[in-house]
Design goal:
This protein has about 240 residues and is an alpha/beta fold. The strands form two sheets. A six-stranded mixed β-sheet has the order 5-6-7-3-8-9, sandwiched between helices. It has a three-stranded antiparallel β-sheet with strand order 2-1-4, with helices on one face. A hairpin with a 6-residue loop joins strand 1 and strand 2. It is globular and about 55 Å long. The two termini are about 35 Å apart.
């Protein structure tokens, strides 16, 4: 099966060589269609940079990133970037910019809002919504583009428990058969990782130190014996 993305020895350095920040160092990984990959690690470990590298928002300073050109991607940020437009127009704008006629884009936007349970708010100013509602709008905007790969950067970090459950349920629904998306998401919520991921990648100081199926990451003896840093992290002893 052709991978959706492959990273080979990729590093990302921001700023001048001597004084800048080494965000990622010699990262190599391959992601197959349909995988649910969680990126975990402490603040500043490189999760967000890796997501941006995978999506193409950041170029590698060294190494290479190979993507399947036939695969459509969308990315959801921790804080949604919504325009000063109605909820429906925020979603329709992305479709229109991709070449969809405006009338058709508005109809597709309304269908996407129905998917996330916000049809009744279609004409409301998007920036007047609650945080949880804004995140659902952002999910609808991403889903409307029909991506095969959905990247999410801490998608529920700023939400209250009820909104977190709603957004998490939508993400799980989007990734479900018969047409599953490939999910790649960064999260500090290890319970969320257990529920949503099929594979866990642990990063520390810009390096991948563990890459395991979710059950082995949390339950098997392999983590403690072969990946001690990751084992300490999930026990709360490494922050």
């Amino acid at each position: 099966m052709r991978p959706v993305v492959r990273i080979s020895g990729a590093s990302v350095h921001f700023g001048q060589a001597a004084t800048g920040v080494q965000a990622l160092s010699a990262v190599s990984l391959t992601i197959a269609p349909g995988e649910r990959v969680a990126l975990v690690g402490a603040n500043g470990c490189g999760k967000s940079t890796l997501l941006r590298l995978l999506h193409g928002l950041v170029a590698p300073s060294a190494g290479e990133v190979t993507r399947d050109p036939s695969v459509q991607q969308a990315m959801l940020f921790q804080r949604p970037h919504l325009l000063r437009l109605s909820v429906q127009s925020n979603i329709a704008m992305g479709l229109w910019l991709r070449g969809t006629p405006w009338g058709e884009a508005k109809a597709l936007a309304l269908a996407a809002l129905g998917r996330v349970g916000l049809s009744d708010l279609a004409l409301r100013p998007a920036r007047k919504l609650s945080g949880g509602q804004q995140q659902r709008v952002a999910l609808a905007r991403a889903w409307a583009l029909m991506p095969q790969v959905l990247l999410l950067d801490e998608p529920t970090a700023s939400l209250d428990p009820h909104a977190k459950r709603e957004v998490e349920a939508l993400i799980e629904n989007f990734a479900a058969p018969p047409s599953p998306m490939t999910l790649i998401f960064a999260s500090h919520n290890l319970g969320q990782v257990k529920r949503l991921a099929s594979r866990v990648i642990y990063l520390e100081h810009g390096r991948v130190l563990a890459d395991l199926p979710v059950k082995e990451f949390f339950n098997g003896p392999l983590l403690q014996t072969q990946y001690p840093e990751a084992h300490l992290f999930i026990k709360g002893e490494l922050v």
